[in-house]
User: Which sequence fits this backbone?
């Protein structure tokens, strides 16, 4: 199969812990991108040095213009310097699995031959540290809220996943690139709206056999700040019926847990609520296995994840309503 030329664009700010792993995974692929551009977003660590060592072309970002966030500005600069006809944007904390790039390329080629398409993958979360388990509910809800994985053939995704976007350069610049979403934390969701206005179809897939990532592996504090900076904004972009379903599902998990606890100390139907508890845990394990390598204990102790999710969500909502900024990679970000 003849593939189109692809420029891989990686926006990177202080990513010395991740960028080498991603570039190694790219360089180990049987088929590789024709061009790799790392947009160095004023990093103060060894991001640039490592990228050059791994044979990437490094583009030093110019000063952040007023009204722009760092990632949209870095993506636009990378696209402007791309020489190939297809653009692939990847977050620096992702990495390809064996033959993952070829799988992605094959899928995009089949889709774009039929229609103008913007394609996105949700990376498979490779969980290694204990605190990373607490991303379970966020991963499931983030993936589900995109409205891309439903039995309905005509379901239209609510947006695109942030870590991975593949699109023809012509289609990208037909919406003026990231300029319309320059001030959006969830630029991936909002740029999906711009593509839809131009008749460009959105397609979302799980990345289990193509693309993996670590989500906020540094510490529990970074995980909380990472999810806090955007999750309330994401709820505002979720289709209303789907949002109600998510709320009902979370409520069911709480009700089952509370009723089981009461049944332990009363004459209630303990066995009945225990069955419901295990059914909810089983459902969670089925979904969780598709988004990350979460441990079985995470599913069995799902009330802890429900409480943590609600705590971070309401913290995010509080920051959004009050216009409070979240410190992220030495920049203050307001939802």
Assistant:
């Amino acid at each position: 199969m003849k593939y189109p030329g692809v420029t891989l664009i990686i926006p990177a700010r202080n990513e010395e812990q991740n960028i080498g792993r991603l570039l190694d995974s790219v360089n180990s692929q049987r088929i590789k991108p024709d061009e790799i551009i790392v947009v160095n977003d004023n990093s103060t660590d060894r991001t640039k040095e490592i990228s050059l060592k791994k044979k990437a072309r490094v583009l030093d970002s110019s000063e952040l213009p007023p009204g722009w966030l760092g990632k949209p500005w870095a993506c636009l600069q990378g696209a402007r310097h791309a020489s190939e006809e297809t653009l692939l944007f990847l977050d620096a904390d992702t990495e390809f699995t064996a033959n993952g790039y070829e799988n992605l390329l094959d899928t995009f080629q089949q889709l774009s031959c039929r229609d103008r398409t913007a394609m996105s993958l949700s990376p498979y979360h490779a969980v290694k540290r204990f605190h990373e388990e607490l991303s379970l509910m966020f991963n499931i809800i983030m993936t589900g809220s995109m409205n891309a994985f439903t039995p309905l053939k005509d379901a239209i995704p609510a947006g695109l996943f942030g870590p991975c976007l593949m699109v023809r350069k012509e289609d990208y610049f037909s919406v003026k690139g990231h300029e319309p979403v320059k001030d959006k934390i969830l630029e991936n969701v909002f740029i999906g709206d711009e593509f839809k206005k131009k008749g460009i179809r959105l397609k979302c897939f799980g990345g289990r056999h193509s693309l993996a990532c670590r989500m906020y592996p540094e510490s529990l504090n970074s995980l909380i700040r990472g999810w806090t900076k955007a999750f309330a904004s994401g709820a505002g972009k979720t289709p209303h019926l789907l949002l109600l379903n998510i709320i009902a599902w979370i409520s069911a998990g709480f009700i089952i847990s509370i009723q089981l606890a009461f049944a332990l100390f009363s004459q209630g139907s303990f066995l009945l609520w225990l069955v419901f508890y295990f059914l909810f845990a089983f459902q969670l394990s089925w979904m969780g296995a598709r988004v990350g390598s979460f441990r079985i204990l995470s599913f069995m102790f799902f009330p802890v994840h429900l409480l943590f999710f609600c705590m971070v969500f309401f913290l995010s909502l509080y920051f959004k309503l009050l216009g409070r900024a979240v410190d992220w990679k030495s920049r203050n970000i307001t939802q």
Observations:
- The two ends are 43 Å apart (CA to CA).
- The domain at 6-123+161-218 is CATH 3.90.550.10 (Spore Coat Polysaccharide Biosynthesis Protein SpsA; Chain A).
- The CA atoms of residues 90 and 325 lie 25 Å apart.
- The chain has a mean pLDDT of 89.
